[in-house]
Design goal:
The protein has helices at about 30-35, 45-55, 60-65, 130-135, 150-155, 170-180, 210-215, 230-240, and strands at about 220-225, 245-250, 260-265, 270-275, 280, 290-295. With about 300 residues, it is an alpha+beta fold. A six-stranded antiparallel sheet has the order 1-6-2-3-4-5. The longest helix has 13 residues, at about 45-55. The protein is globular and about 120 Å long. Residues about 40-45, about 50-55, about 60-65 and about 70-90 have low confidence and may be disordered. It comes from Nonomuraea mesophila.
Amino acid sequence: MFRERKPSVRWVLPDGRYDPVVAEGARWLDYERAAEAPPDSGSAPANRAASVREHSTADPAERTGRADPWEWPAHEEETHGGKPEQWVGEAEAPEPVERDWFDGPRRPPRLADSRPYGVPGGLARPDPQVERDLAESIAPGTRFPDPRGTWVRLINGGGPADDPFRASNAADCALAVLSTWHGEPATAAPRLPEYDRIGRPVLTGERGGTARIERWAGHRLQYAGQGRHAYPLIARRLLDAGHGAGAVIVVRWPGGGSHAWNAVNADGEVIWIDAQRGHMSVEPPYTTVTGVFCLMLDRQGHPR
C-alpha cells in the first residue's frame, strides 16, 4: 500500500487519490500534473490553466467531500439594516414620544383665562407688545426652552424698574414660567394699580395668589423644609423627575411676607429662576428665608 521510502525521506504519501485543497481552490496534484504534461502543442499552457480553473471552480462538496459553512446568499440580502428579509419584522420599534402635561386632558387652563383681571387685589392685562416680545424670543412649539436664554428676562416685561406694579406679581410670574416652559408662552400680568390715601402705590402681592397657583396646577404646595437646607432636597427631587420637570417655590421672609419663584430640570441640570426679577442661576438665589414650600411636577404634570 505504501511506496518504498528513500533514505532521505522521512515519510511518503499512500497510493491512490490524495488532492488536498490549497490556495485559490487549486490542488497540489493539479500543479504536479501540469508540470509533468509534455508540451506537445502551443495550446498546452492554456490547457493546463483551464485544467486548474476547472478544478478551482468545482463545487466545494465535490472537491473535498464536505460542504463549507452555510451563508446568506447574496440575492437574499435586503437593504433593511443589512439583515435578511425575514428579519425585517423584528426591527426595533421607535422609542415612544413622551407626552407633555399640556397635551393631556388634565392640562391647566390658559394662564390668561385664570387671572383675576380688574378686581381689587387682582391683576391688570399685560401690554400686547410685551407678549409679542416673549413670543418672538422662542421658536413656535418649543417646549423646555433653554432657561439661559432671553425668555426668562422677558416674562415680566421691563420689570419693577419699568412698572412699580410688576414688583408685586410674583405668583403670576411663577405660573408664566411654567406655562412658557411647557410650550405656551405667557408674560406675567402686573398688579392692578392701586394707591393708598396719600397717593402712594400699594405694592402688596396678588390677593389669593398662592391659592390660584394650586388651582391652576391642580396640586397643593407642600412644605419642603426650613431655610436654605430645603433646597438640596428640591434639587434632588427635580433631578429624579427627569428633564422637563418644573417647580413653583414659595418662601417666607424672616421679616414677613413671601415670594414665589421657580426651579426646573433642564437636561439634567437644576436651574433656579426668579422671573419677576429676570434672573436665573445654578444656585438658589435666596438663602435668608424661613419656611419653604414647593409644588413640583414632572413633564407629564404628575406631582413629584
